[in-house]
Amino acid sequence: FVLFSSAASTLGSAGQGNYAAANAYLDALAEKRRARGTAGLSVAWGLWGGGGLAESKDAIQARMKRVPMPAMDPQLAVRALGEALEGSDAVVTVMDVDWAQLAAAPGSVDLQDRPLVRDLPEVRRLAAARAGSAEAARGEEDLARRLAGMNRAEQDRALTDVVRAEAAAVLGYASADALQARQAFKELGFDSLTAVELRNRLNAATGLRLPATLIFDYPTPVELATWLRAELVQEEAVSVPILDELDRLESSLADSATDHDMSESITRRLQSILSRWIEKQGGSESESEKVEFRSATPDQVFEFLDKELGLSN
């Protein structure tokens, strides 16, 4: 009486709680049968090679190449089944594992905290190596500290780059250049499973404990980066709404890719807004600091606006 279970019931599997629970039921059934004195063996299998579920679709194959459990040689797996049938255990787990890759996965639980595997020789060696490098890692500057030395627009850009880089890694892209800052995660191909993987990677990158619904609550890299900034950066007690709006405008202009006609249209609009602002304040620029609005670039307009609002030294 042999039950084919899954390693998901042994180690857990992100985004597959229902699947793990169903296979855990099979393991429990084998244990119960053995306790009653009847035959029962549940084998919690890892990935099989040779054309199984893990090789059924190109997308699944691409994802499986990034997990730390390579597909098993079917002949070795069948041999392991034969040995399990001759053994005395009611439940066994059979899988091929790259322990170093599993231990290094962002957001993964320390293998030393897993009773099932912590006594394996490979896991003990990894734990010793980690302990040796921990002291050096403590001196590294964390993300929050780097952000503290930036203005808001720079923080948004830096965090957007972090989100794009981690998303690209999850999807298997060579670089973040393939992902646009304002492109929806859903359009990029994220599902509930890859959403959890991205959340785990961002947990490791930011040091935060982020919700599993992260990319559904903030559906583009730039929106997610804006939310992460609020979580990571200690805001000043007093905030001036109009200055916040100017920061967001500056960030949007820096991130947007526009053609020549659109760039001229944006410049004219900014010039018009600035002219009305100066007129409203009843002042005018000095001859030495006069801005030629018809030929001014967006950077020149922002520089002048900063001076008028007392934002520059």
How is this structure best described in words?
This protein is mainly alpha-helical. It is 56% helix and 4% strand. The protein has helices spanning 8-11, 17-35, 58-64, 74-86, 99-104, 121-137, 143-148, 152-171, 185-188, 192-206, 214-217, 221-232, 241-255, 260-281, 298-308, and strands at residues 2-6, 41-45, 91-94. The protein has a 3-stranded parallel β-sheet, sandwiched between helices. The longest helix has 22 residues, at 260-281.
Helix content: 55-70%
Structural class: mainly alpha
How confident is the prediction overall: mean pLDDT?
77
Shape designation: elongated
Strand and helix order: EHHEHHEHHHHHHHHHHH
Distance between the termini: 80 Å
Rg estimate, integer Å:
28 Å
Give the helix/strand layout.
Layout: E1 2-6, H1 8-11, H2 17-35, E2 41-45, H3 58-64, H4 74-86, E3 91-94, H5 99-104, H6 121-137, H7 143-148, H8 152-171, H9 185-188, H10 192-206, H11 214-217, H12 221-232, H13 241-255, H14 260-281, H15 298-308
Parallel strand pairs: 1-2, 2-3
Helix pairs in contact: 8-10, 8-12, 8-13, 14-15
